[in-house]
Every structure is written in C-alpha cells, then in structure tokens.
Design brief:
Helix content: 25-40%
Number of strands: 12
Largest sheet: 5 strands, antiparallel
Structural class: alpha+beta
Order of helices and strands: EHEHEEEHHHHEEHEEEEEHHHH
Number of helices: 11
Strand order of the largest sheet: 4-5-8-6-7
Shape: globular
Strand content: 25-35%
C-alpha cells in the first residue's frame, strides 16, 4: 500500500514536488510500476503521479519536435523515423495507449527482459532530454541523461525537426505483448550518420565506433561489426537472450538498419 500520492497539476508543481527525488517513485502510465506492486513489490511508497502535470503534449516549433515525458507512446506512431517504427513495436495497442514516453526511457532493464525501446531511436535522432532534480533543471543529450539519470525527473525530450533518412531493425520474441529483444537504429541528416542500439546493455548506446568507421569509408557491414566495441563489457543475459546471442546478432541488426539508409537515399 502506498502512503502518499502526489498529483501535481502543472509542470512547475511536478518539479517542486519531485525536489531532489529522495524517497519518491514516479508514476507515468503505470505499465511497469503497477505489475510490480501487484506482485507484492515495495510498499509504503511516496508516488509522484504525472497524469495531470501537463507533460503529455507533442509540438513542432522553432526547428524542434518536443515530446512531454507523460505523452503516451501511441502518440509517437506517426512521428518521425526511426522513432515511429520503434513506437509501433512496443507491446500492443493497449499498452502503447497507457505507457508513457518518460516511463519507457527511464525504466530499468530487468532480469526478465530488456526495456527502453525508445532510447535507441531518440539517440539516433540526436535528441536531448530536459530534466529536473538536485542542482535544478538541465538539458543534455539523451545518451548523457541515460548514463546519469538516477535521481532526476525527465520532463521532455526534443530532437531536430529536419529531413533525414532512417533505418530500424529489431529482433523480437513472439508474445502477446511482443517483447523486442534488441534493436538497432540509424539516422542520416545532411551527410552525418548516427547509430544506436537498445537491448544489448542496461541502457541504449550510441555506437560511435560504427559512426567513425562509416565516416572513414568502411562498408556498412564492416562498420556494423564495430558495434561489439561499443557495447564491450556491457552485454547482458536475461530471460529473453544471452550475452553470447546478443554479441552475434547485434552486428546483423546494425547492418540491416544501415542498409535501409542506403535504400532511403537511392
């Protein structure tokens, strides 16, 4: 049983209620937290509910697309690639209508399955995250936020509203909720290619070794093989796949995502 529910009605109230994050559990759509509580998870929580905090919008202005942390994943399905395709691969329509962008980005991978399906496409899109916590608000590349997100409240993510070609490749486990085991995303904008993977490690990774190989003239297949360098030492086992499997399949997914870039540029 929870001991206290905080229900802010504005972004400012949410920031004030969160403070430095101490002793709080943040509730977005509840698709990750509520099953844990139903299964006998931690009790006596102070819960910050974002449902009425005004963080559920999507806007295009001043050359950026901005998505509120409480926005449902279903709202992303018609946005820009590779984010739209990644969103359509999250679970099922019922879950996508309830689960939030911020929850998907921030939830921890578990021993049962990887999580964070939206992390790789947002990294590929050069997204930034605006968050609040100890030290006040800050905006940083989403990969930096993922590396040091503990104790921070994600408010929104933004990425440049530009023309680009994109690729997305996924390995999935057939299930009623369609768990992606891992995925690779790529996006090319004005000749610059960004590559990211999710499901290989605890969080999504930007694949700088792959990007550098491409910039040096390597073929897509040769560059894709470098993804192992980017996740070295962080490959993980869970109930869906082993680290051994991930190491061998991830380069193939990256190569497929890169091939889609070439097809889109043709």
């Amino acid at each position: 049983m929870t001991s206290e529910i905080l229900l802010p009605t504005s972004q400012e109230e949410a920031i004030a209620s969160f403070g430095d994050g101490g002793g709080l559990t943040v509730l977005g759509g509840g698709t990750a937290l509520m099953p844990e509580l139903a299964a006998g998870g931690p009790s006596g929580l102070r819960v910050l509910c974002l449902a009425r905090a005004g963080l559920d919008g999507v806007s295009r202005s001043n050359g950026s697309v901005t998505i509120g942390a409480a926005c449902p994943i279903s709202a992303l399905e018609e946005l820009d690639e590779p984010l739209a395709t990644a969103a359509r691969h999250v679970a099922d329509p019922e879950v996508r209508a309830q689960a939030t962008v911020g929850g998907n980005i921030c939830v921890e991978a578990s021993a049962e399955s990887p999580r964070g399906d939206l992390q790789a496409p947002l990294i590929a899109l050069a997204a930034t995250g605006r968050s609040s916590g100890a030290g006040g608000e800050r905006t940083e590349p989403i990969e930096n936020f993922l590396a040091s997100r503990d104790g921070r409240l994600l408010l929104e993510v933004s990425y440049p509203d530009t023309s680009r070609v994109a690729g997305y490749a996924v390995a999935r486990r057939p299930h009623a909720h369609h768990y992606p085991i891992m995925a690779a995303c790529a996006a090319r904008d004005s000749g610059t290619t960004r590559v990211a993977v999710t499901g290989a490690a605890r969080t999504g990774h930007r694949c700088t070794s792959v990007e550098q190989a491409l910039a040096s003239g390597a073929t897509a297949d040769d560059a894709a093989a470098r993804v192992v360098d980017d996740v070295a030492g962080e490959l993980r086992d869970d109930a869906l796949a082993s680290a051994w499997y991930r190491e061998r399949v991830m380069p193939t997914l990256v190569a497929r995502a890169l091939a889609q870039l070439e097809e889109g540029s043709a």
